[in-house]
What does this fold into?
Amino acid sequence: MSGEQRLQLLVNGRTHEVLAHPGERLLDVLRDRLRLTGVKEGCGTGQCGACTVLLDGRAVASCLMLVADAVGHQITTIEGLAPPGRLHPLQRAFLKHGAVQCGFCTPGMILSAKALLDQNPKPTEQEIRHALAGNLCRCTGYRKIIEAVQAVAGKADRRG
Amino acid sequence: MKHIAIGKRIPRLDGVEKVTGATLFGADLTLPGMLWGAVLRSPHAHARMRRVDTSKAGRMPGVLAVLTGRDFPRDDGADMPVLARRKVRYQGQAVAAVAAETPEQAAAALARIKVEYQPLPPVNDVREAIRSGAPAVHEQSEDPKLPNVCGVAEVRRGNLQAGFRQAHRIFEDTFETPWVHQGFIEPHVSLASVDPASGRVTVWTSTQAQFNQREGLAHALGLPIGKIRVIGLPVGGAFGGKNALCVEPICAQLARRAGRPVKMVVSRSDDFYATQPCGAAVIELKTGVKKDGTLVAFQARLLFDTGAHPGAQHSTGAVLAQGPYRIPNLHVKAYAVYTNKPPAGARRALTSPHVHFALESQLDIIAHALDLDPVEIRLRNALRKGDPVLGGASMPYTSAGKVVRTAAERAGWAHRARSQARNGKARGWGIAAGHWSVWAGASSAWVQVNEDGTIAVITGAINLTGTNTSFAQIAAESFGVPVDRVTAHQGDTDTSPRNDGSWGSRILFGVGEAVRRACEDAKRQLAESLSNELGVPVGRIKVKGGRVRVAGRGGRFLSLAEAAERAAGYQGAITGKAALTDLPFGVAVAAQVAEVEVDRETGRWQVLRLVCAQDVGFAINPMSVEGQVEGAASQGIGYALCEEYLYDSAGRMLNPDLMDFRLPTAPDHPQFSVHLIEPQQDAGPFGAKGVGEPPLVPTAPAIANAIFDAVGVRIRRLPITPERLHEALQRGG
Amino acid sequence: MRRSEIVQPETIQQAVRALQGRGAVAFAGGTDLIPAMQRGEARPQVLVNLKGLSDLRGIRRVRGGIRIGALTRVSEVLESALVAAEFPLLVAVARDFGSAQIRNLATIGGNLCNAAPSADLALPLLALDARLAIRGPRGSRAIPVSEFFRGVNRPALARAEVLTAIIIPRAPARTGAAHAKLGIRQAMDLAFVSVAAALTLRTDGRKCRRVRIALGAVAPKPMRATMAEAKLEGEPLTLALLEEAAELAASECRPISDLRAGRDYRRKMTRVLVRRVLREALRRAQPARPQKEQSR
It folds into this structure.
C-alpha cells in the first residue's frame, strides 16, 4: 500500500517491525498489525480512555497518537502488564474486588491505575479519581475500581 | 443454613480474560476474506426520498455489494425498515449500505451514493406531535385530533373522582426527562457470513438477545429461523441498547450479496443515532392526599417519545407509575408518541426512571407542603403484602417500607444536619424509592455431569452481567461441590436452549431458576442410572453434599466423581434440563438517600454520598449484586447531572460525541454504601430475584429532592444542569 | 480518517520550510487535530511533526523569568518543580486540563495555536503577561500573548510561522494568582466560563500595583478584562471594589449561547468567577502573618 514504511516499535518489552503508514493511528497499528486487541476503541476522540496505553510509563490515548510518534518509545499494553500465566497485582485486585463487569474499559483502566501508582504510590481517593478521570466506566460506578487501586497501594505501603 | 457456594463474593469466572485483555469483543474479530460494511445515514430528520442513485458507488474500487431499501422484503408497517425506502423519519436513519475490501473504500463508496431528499417539517417533541395539525411522522394516524400516537395504555383502579373528593389537598405537577444514550463504552458491532452451500447465515454480534435477534433477522431477511445462527459475543456494556437489531440485518444481507463475510463496526457518533436510545417523556401528575399524607387519588398522563418508530415502553410506564405505593384510586393513561427522533429503545429499567422521577419528586413536594418528613410519607404509603400492583397482581410480600427504612437508617436520616451552608455552598439530603417487576420469560438450561464429576452449565442466556458466575454458584450449591468444579457456558442459538434476552433483570431470576431445576433433573437422572445399574430402588439414592448416598443394607457413599463415571458408562450422558416461562413475578423495591452539595451562585452541584438499599430476594453473589447497584446508581447520577441529547429546530442532534453528551467521570461519583435486603421469599433460585434495574430508578429523584432540601428550589426537568438550577434560584424557586 | 503524509523536520528552519508546502499543517500533541480529522473537519495533506525539534521542548530559567518550549507537554508543565515554584497558577490550570491521557500528549503551544475561545493555558499566560516567541519564513519575532488571538481558532500566526516558546516574566513580590473554571462535570468538560487572574500589591500591601484578569469561553478568543483591570489598578483593594471589577468584567465579555450554555448565564457566571478568583488572588498576594516573615 502506498506510503507504508517499515517501522520499529518497542511494545511490551519486545521490538516489533511493522509495515504501516506513519500517519496511521497507534491504536490501529497495535490492534491490527500486532493483534493486541486488549487496546479498545470506544470513541476515537480521546474522551473515553478505552484506548489507553502506556508510553514510557505514562498513560496516553492511543487513538490520538500517530504511530510515527510511538517509534523510539516504550509502549505497554494490557497484554504486557504481566508475564503469560501471571497477573499483576492490579489485575488480581480488580478481580478480587469485583472491579470488572463488562471488561471493555478494564484494560485502559488498569493501565491508568498503574501509571498513577508508579508515579504516586500512596494516592488519596481524590488523586485516584483524578487519575482515572479520563477512563469512563458505565458498569461499576467506580467504587470497586477505587477500592482495588487502594488495596494495591495499601499493600505496597505495608511491604515498605 | 450454611451455604457452600451461594451468598459468596466469588470473582467473575470470566474475569481473568477481561483483566488481561484476552476477551474478544466484536471489533477484535476477523474472518478470512472479510469485507467491511458501512452505512449511509440520513442527514435530515424528516424527508421524502425521491431518488437513490448507487450506480457510481457500485463501480468503486473494492466494492462488492451495495444495498438500498429495495433489497429487503417489503414492510409497510410502522416498524423500522432496515433501510429506508420512500421516507426518512429521523436524522441518522440508515438509507444505504456498502461492503468493500477496506473501511476506506467503503467510506469512499458511501460518499458516491446520491440521495435526493425533499425535506419535510420535522416534529420535534411530544407536545408538538400530539397537537391537532402536527405533521404526521407516519401517514396513517388513528385519530386526527390526536396525531402521531403510536400506542395507548390505560390502567384504572377504584374510583378516581371519589378519591379526589376524599383528598385534603390536590397537587398537580408536570415533569420532563430527556433523550439519553444508554452509554455503553463498546459501540455496536456485528459480523456475518453465509454458507454458500446451504445459504445459512451466521451473525456474530454484541447483543443482549441472541434468540430474539434470530427471530428478528428471519423477519428482516425473509428467511426461516432455522437458516440463521446468531452467536452472541461478549458485550462491552448494553443497558438495553443492544436488545433490538442494529446493523445485524444490513451486515447479513451484505454478506449474502457479496458472497463473503462482512464486519460492521458502528462509530461512536453513529451510535448515537443507530442505537435505539432512551426516549424523552413528559409526565403530568395530579395527586390527591389526605392531611397525613396518605395517597387517595392518582391521575397521570404520560407522554413517551418513541421517536420515529415503535419502541418506547409506555405500558411499562403505565404499570409502574404508581410507584411502590398503595393507591386505592388511580387512572393512568400512557401514550407512545411519534416524533422525528431515533426510534426509542430500551434503557435500564425502561420507563420506570421517568415515572419515578415524577412521582418521587412530587411526593417530596407534597411532604414539604404538608410539613411531613419525606421518609414518613413514603412509609405511610408503602406497598404491603396483598396490595394490588398493576397488571392484576398483588404484592407478594411486605418489603417496600423496610427498604425505605433501611436506606434512611443507614444514611442517618434522623440525625441529618439541615441545609448547612458553608462557603456559599448548601448541603441537602433527599430520599426516593422506586420499583421494578421481575418476570421470568423464556428461560432454559442444560446441566451436564461430566464423567469425572465436574459440572457444565449451558444456557443460551447472554452473560451480560456475570450471571454465568452465579449459575456456577447455583450448580455448585445444588451438587454440593466447590465452584471450581463447575463451568458455565453461554451457547449460541444453534448450540444452546432457547432463552429470551438479558433484559428486565430476568436472567438470574428465570434462567438461574432453570439452572437450579436442571441440576435437580441431573441429580435425578444420576440417581436413576445408579438405581438401574445397582438394582437399588431409586428412593434409596440421594445426591447431596458432593456425594451420592446409597441407603439400605450395605449402604455406602460414592463420591460424585465415582457416581458420574459409573453413569457415563451405564447411561452414556447425564444431562439435566429445565425450561420455564412463568415464575411468580417479583417486585423489586429500591430506595436511595442522596446527600448533595450545591454552589448557590453557579448552580453547580455534586453528590457527596449515596446510600442504597434494595430488596434483592437473595444475593447469590453479593459482590456482583453490589456492582449492579453501584453501576445503576452511576447511570442515575448521569441522568440527573449531565446526560441529554440536544437538538436544533431541524431535528438534528447537536452533541453526537462524548465531549458534549456527557457521561459522569470518576470524580463525579460519590461514596456509595449499599445495603442488600434478603427476604428470600421470591421464586428465583434460593429466593433470588432481579437486581440490575431497580437501582437506577430512585437516583435522579433522590438527587432532585436533595437539591430542594439544600436550596429550596424544585427542578422538574432532567438533567439538572447548573444553568437550569441557577435560573430557578434566580426566579426564587 | 485520512492518512496524511508526515514530515519530520530536524531543525526549526526545516519545519518552517515544510510548512510553506501546500496542505501542510503543524502537528504537535494531536489532541485537537486528530479528533478534528476524525470528524472530517480537518483534512491536512501533510503533517509537519514539530515534536522532533528539541529546541522547542523543555522548561528552563532565563533572565528575568522562565522559558517554556512550545512543544512542552501539559503534563511536564504540571510536574515541573520550576513552574511550581514560580507560577503555581500555571500548575493549577494544567492539573485541571483534560485527563491524564490528554495531558501526556497535549502541548502548551498546541493549546495556544488551536486558539479556542476556551483555551485553558491561554488564561494563566494572559494573567502572567507572557510573551510568545515565533519563528517563520521572515525570521523571529516575539509578541505579548494578549496579541496572539485573532478570533475563534485563529492565532496570530502568518503562513508557515511556528510558535517556538513561551516566556513568562518572573512575578514581582506580593503577587497572588488564582483560577476557576465552570462546567457540569468535575473533569473533562469544556468550560462554559473560565477565569485566571494575577494581582500584584504595592509595598504597602493594600493598593493594587497591577492586575491581569483573563477570561475564557466568553468571547471569540481568550481575552483580558481590561476595564476591570483599570478599575483596580492603583486602588486600595476592598471586597466591594473587587465586586465592581467583577461586574465590569462581566459587562465587557461577549459570550454567546451555544449547546453548552446560554449567553446570560455565562455573563453572570463571569462576574461570579472573577470575583472569586480576585478574592483568592488577593488572599495569596497578601504577605504572610507577621510571626513568620517569608523570605524570597
Q: What stands out?
A: The longest helix of chain B spans residues 507-534.
